[in-house]
Amino acid sequence: MAVSEQTNSSCCAQPATKPSNRLSQLSAVGRRLKTPWTVVLVIPASVALFDPAQVVPVVQFALKAFGGTLPYIAFAVLLIAWLKAAGAEASIGRAFQGRETQAIFLAAMFGGLAPFCSCEVIPFIAGLLAVGAPLPAIMAFWLSSPLIDPPTLLITAASLGWPFAIGKAIFAVGLGLFGGFAVKLLMSGGTFKNPVKTITVTGCGCGPSPFTGKPRWRFWEENTRRQTFGRQLTANALFLAKWLALAYMLEALLVTYVPADLIARVVGGEGVLPIVIAALVGMPAYLNSYVAPPLLAGLTEQGMSAGAAMSFMIAGAVSSIPAMAAVWSLVKPGVFATYLALGVSGAVMSGILFQLVI
């Protein structure tokens, strides 16, 4: 009994607890190392070890690319912090009210403007489903939302040019409309009579509920909103810097070590096949919307066609973990399968159209 009491005492560290403490410390160190910053440091170190002559060109390429993106990063960070501080989410839900056709159009357009973090999408959509918002409009929002938002638009423009960024924004709305009206047609034929799983509307701690309050665009007049602006500004600046530093390091490796003729053979050329291949590769090889543009810039320099690049980016965004998790967690498997099918087919059609226009 004495041993048991001494072991459980909080004022005395027993040798038996030390291995557990060491494991906890090692686990904490491991979690801190599992960040993009670790990869950013490991890449030039590895190049210096295995190919010393290329370490300076690789680092210079990444630094030059990152510096060229800084004005876009600054504007994107300020914009998203302003939208969050103003409570812009409060006006998004109105897009789903009214007649179904009108709701599909508004939902597809608002999908590219909604300032939601990935975990906010789930309670937002859950609330819409709970109050009976039409599934076609929700599908329109689901398909367009992961494709574009203000920061993604600016990062894409910085890496691939404004024609590509504007094209992606147009295709994001177009894919939302395509998905929304496709689901409406299926439902008119008797499909998806009971598409929703049992859901509970909960918050995620990411900000104000999108169903309450009104936007306050002059956010600086309220102390709470000023604090929100500061938090969002810092968090988004660190987030974008982290992922873009990784993206440009990976792009530097791609341009340096991947043969251009290999890329040209697989996803180059003007035909439909490279676009289809890019969509099929883009689904499982998802890269988030901040990493993908710089890498695609490297691929296009190596011979990837513009249509294949567009197809890859759209298919990859639709298959993002937050986007798929939101769909899977709230609707039944048939709706989930339809979401993926619409995403892949929409990516291929977008790539073909973009190839014809460019």
Automatic annotation (TrEMBL):
InterPro entries: DUF318 (IPR005524), UPF0718 (IPR052923). It is found in: Cell membrane. Its main location: membrane. It holds the Pfam family ArsP_1. The chain crosses the membrane at residues 37-55, 61-83, 104-133, 153-183, 233-250, 262-287, 308-330, 336-357. It comes from the Bacteria. Keywords: Cell membrane, Membrane, Transmembrane, Transmembrane helix. It is a multi-pass membrane protein. GO terms for cellular component: plasma membrane. Belongs to the UPF0718 family. PANTHER family: UPF0718 PROTEIN YCGR. This is Permease. It comes from Roseibium hamelinense. The lineage of its organism: Bacteria, Pseudomonadati, Pseudomonadota, Alphaproteobacteria, Hyphomicrobiales.
